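Researcher: Go.
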Amino acid sequence: MRYCSDACRRRGVTEGDRTLEAAILALLAVRPAGATILDSDAAKAVGEESWQELAEPARRAARRLLAAGEIDILQAGAVVDASRAKGPFQLRRRQR
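Model: Structure:
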């Protein structure tokens, strides 16, 4: 799946968006199975000191990875509907 929503389809997916997706997957790859990261961890890895500007793009990247079946999005330890979730996401590599 290329887009996570109509908004992503209208906006398109940029190289920066792909970089955030790769950062999410790389951060999860070095963690034990079942471990989580925050969406902001990916934004910080890519944007360093200007990471706050990447907070929403990181959430969009997480939604695309969810739609592709790569990760789960959690809040308070429970899988949530990412289209309705508010606030920070916890991200976990999907168990296969």
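Model: The radius of gyration is 12 Å.
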